[in-house]
Amino acid sequence: MRIPILKLKDCLLVSIQWELDDQTALQFQEDLLKKIHETNARGVVIDITSIDFIDSFIAKVLGDVINMSRLMGAKVVITGIQPAVAITLVELGIRLDDVMTALDLEKGLEKLQQELGD
Amino acid sequence: MYNEIISHIKNRKTEIIEEWIDRVKEAADERMISVVSEQVFQGTSYEFVDLILLNLDENNSEYKSKLEMFSEKIVRLGWPITFVVSGLRTFTHVVHDDLIQEKKISKDREGEYLEFLDNWLAPLSNEIIHTYASTWEKTVSLQKIALQELSAPLIPVVEHISIMPLVGTIDTERAKLIMENLLEGVVSHRAEVVLIDITGVPVVDTMVAHHVIQAAEAVHLVGARCMLVGIRPEIAQTIVNLGIDLNKFITTSTLRKGMEKALEMTNRKIVELEEVN
C-alpha cells in the first residue's frame, strides 16, 4: 500500500493514516523524494495524527526523509505527533532536534509559509 | 497450675498495675510523659491490663474486637510503638517478679511457666505491631494519592500559552506523570508555548534535569515550544557545575520574564490602557 502524496501550490501534503511497516516506510521515502524532484516543492508537511505507535526504525526513516528532503531544498514540518508517540520517541533517544513540528496540519502549513517567507 | 496463676494475677491486679506503672514511668522518656496527661496514662494503663487479663479467659471473640479497638486507640493517641512494646515487656517482668515474690511458682517449673507467659502475651504484641504497621501503610498510601493529585497541573493562562508549576522533589514516577500531563495538556489546550516553572523544586540534580529535558523534547515533538522558568541563582550554579547542557532551551529567572518572552514569541504584548479622563 502506497502513501498518497498531494501537491498544494508549492508544498507537498502527506497524511499517514495507518501504522507503517518497514517496506511501506522505505517505499514512502523513495516516493516522496521523487515527488519533490518532479514538482520542485519547497515545503513538505507530514501529518501523523492517526499514528499511535512508532518504532525506532520508522523514526529513523522519518529522520532520514527529513534530512534528504532538506538536501533537495524542501523544508519539512511534522504535525500531529501524539503524546504517547512523543514519549516513545524521547525514551528511544530520538531527538528530531532540528525538525520543525506543529500541533496540527493547519499550524504546520502556517509555520511552513512563515519559514518560506510568503 | 495455670488456673492458679491466673487467679493469683487477678487477685493482685491493683498491686501489679501500680508496680507496672511505676516501672514504665521510670523507663519512659520525660517528653513522653509530659505529652500524655496523668489521667489518660492511668486510664489507658488500666484498660491495657484489663485487656491482658481478658485474654486469659477463653472467650476469644470479644477479646479480638476489644484488642483491635485498643490498638487503634493507642495509635490515635500517637504513642510511639517502642514505648508500647517495651511496656508490654515490662508487664511480663512485673508479673514474673510478683509471682516469684509470692512464691507461687517453684524454681523447677519456671521454664514451663515462662512458656505459658510467652504464649499469653505474644499474640497481643503481634496484634499491636500489626495495627501500627497497617495504620502507617494506610497513611503512606493516602499521602501518595494526595501527592499525585498535587503533582502536575497544567494551567492554560492565556490563549496558546500554558504554565506548569512544579513544586517539590521530582522522582522518576512523578516525572512520568508530569510528562503525560504536559503533553496531553499541550494537545488539548492547543498551546504553542509551555512554561515549566521550577521555582518550587528544591534541588535540581542530573536526574531532575534529565527528566525536564526529556519533557521539553517531547513537547517539541508534539509541536509546541518549551521554556524553563524560575531558575534560581543556586540552581543556575548547580546546572553549570554539573555540566548539564540547557543551551537548547529558552530559560529565564522568573515566571514574569518568561511570560513576557512567551507573549513575544506568539506575537503579542501586554499594553497598559490609557487613562480615561
TrEMBL record, chain A:
Transmembrane annotation, as ranges: none
Record-annotated STAS domain positions: 1-112
PANTHER family in UniProt: RSBT ANTAGONIST PROTEIN RSBS (PTHR33745:SF1), RSBT ANTAGONIST PROTEIN RSBS-RELATED (PTHR33745)
This protein's name: Antagonist of RsbT
Organism in which the protein naturally occurs: Jeotgalibacillus campisalis
TrEMBL record, chain B:
Taxonomic superkingdom: Bacteria
Coiled-coil blocks: none
GO MF terms held by the record: heme binding; oxygen binding
Annotated STAS domain residues: 151-266
InterPro entries the record matches: Bact_StressResp_Reg (IPR051932), Globin/Proto (IPR012292), RsbRA_N (IPR014792), STAS_dom (IPR002645), STAS_dom_sf (IPR036513)
Pfam family, one: STAS
Keywords: Phosphoprotein
Protein name as catalogued: RsbR protein
